[in-house]
Write the structure tokens for this entry.
Amino acid sequence: MTQSSIKLNLVNIDSVPSSSEISKILVVDDEKVIREILADFLTLEGFEVVTAPDGKAAVQVLKDNHFNMVISDLKMPNMGGLELLEYIQENHDNLLTVIMTGFGTVETAIEAMKKGAYDYILKPFKVEEVVHIVHRGMEKQRLISENVRLKEILSLHQLSEELQSTLSLDEVIESILSALIKNLKCDAVGLYLRTKSTGQFTLQRQYIDPQSSADVMAAALDIPLVVNEVKKNRFILAQNEEAHRFFLVVPSNLSSLAVTPLVARQEEIGVLTAFSCTNGFHFTIGQRKMMDILGSRSAAAIDNAELYGGLKQSFRQTIQALARALEAMDTYTAGHSDRVTLYSRIVAKQLHVSEDDLEIITQAAMLHDIGKLGCHTNLNKPGKLTDEEYEIFKQHPAYGKEILEPIEFLNNVIPGVEYHHERWDGKGYPTGLKGTEIPLVARILSVADAYDAMTSDRAYRKALTHANAVDEIKKFSGYQFDPTTAEAFLEGIEAYRQDCVRRNIPIPK
Ligand SMILES: [Fe+2]
């Protein structure tokens, strides 16, 4: 890490002020009487007024308080109005500054307006004139805030909709980071999740503005270290503020880093980060608040996606356990469920089924023969089955249905299990469905199952070669197999085998 000891002001995110209903005005003048007059009548007009005797004192007050407007004298000891204006322009978004000046310095007041002052008041002033300028300024500020708020609401609404539409952790993170970088307009944003065992925050994904300088890329590498350090205090860092309650080692090229916690079910599950290396960049109060809101919306979505991921994992493990239980009964078919799953997925992808359907096909393939658990006969005996045994064997798809029916979360896989021995020509079992009456999942399982059966040793015969099995599938396409599914299988299996050779990995069997 490029290390330097930079004094950074760390602003607790909890201290970000909420927008006050009463507009607040800071009056800055070295003449006590002017401060008092302005304070009195602006208070009567319904504003909350705070006063400061010079620019330096005003800067201190601005650091800890949110104001809508600053009315400042031009010439003051310690720090004049122009210097104060420059400070405000750099550090406070949407804070209007009105400069007060005597006749001799009108040019300077105009200069101040060019530098971003909202308006100027000539001394000696008339009360009505000041009130008019203040009200006009407040109205302008209200409209700007309204506009910003509308944009924020729109973007939060979009994010909420995106988050609601998915349970995939990847997609959730993608949506959050897109919203974050769009709203903060900084150099990079990142999302970290806490590893429960170590308590450390691990970077899940980082978005770096492609136009960024090498500085940003270098800082990005160091942010994970800084996050784990800063995180302990839940603070935002802003380099160009003077206070230094804390002293940290940070990348020297970092201008401003914001870290906001992701809290779900009272637990900190991660953090969002945003940073900039642009000189003078700082996160405004609005941006900090936005990040805070994004953080709170995101945390629940991430938590849900993680819970769902965990559930899916247990679901898969349950299915695998059931498939293993079956294979434990029948050593000749060891690995059969896994291979049928592999082949079924190859066909499904070749047919461009949806992600959800692919998941169902995978589960159905794992469990397609689960009904054999219900056949009280030795299906693994040497030699062919007797007619009576074969009749029992033919019950296994129906038994499979019966076993799975009481398990609600496995109901989606029943069609594959129940119909995987149906034939395209209607001569299959148990129901004799034909053509497209047979669910697609079952047509896929049928060809995958047949290929694996043919290319596996059985108690009563040796395995067929791949080429022979392919010939059989071609021969029975349109009779036993759905021609489209059979074709997809043949194309998919060839591509898969070539890929295995290219990657130097063993072809199953
Ligand atoms: Fe079967």
Observations:
- The first helix runs from residue 32 to 44.
- DSSP finds 16 helices and twelve strands in the chain.
